[in-house]
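Protocol step 4 of 6: structure prediction from sequence.
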Amino acid sequence: MNRPLFLRASYFLGGAWVTYCAVVSAQAGAPATAATFVVVLGLLLIAAIREAELAYARAVAADLRRALRVHTTRAARRTDHAALDGACCLPGWESRGATHSDTCAERAA
């Protein structure tokens, strides 16, 4: 079970238990205890909302890192292709993966 799902389940179960305790305390005539349970329920709600926002932020950050990695890889590939175009007497699209011709300066060097 992954972390966000586990935390959401924990917040839900904890909130249900705290709500039950608040209702039982109010029925038993302990308004201060019931109010304390309501405050704890509010804190659990804030924690659940915060965790949901953090999970969204983590997902966005992962998407950005993935996009940056792809962009960097493509830029590096373009640089490699440009170096091949300048290093061989054949156009880059012909020389990639092919052997150099006998007249190529890079082959003689």
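Step 5 (inspection) to follow. The chain has one domain: 3-91+102-108.
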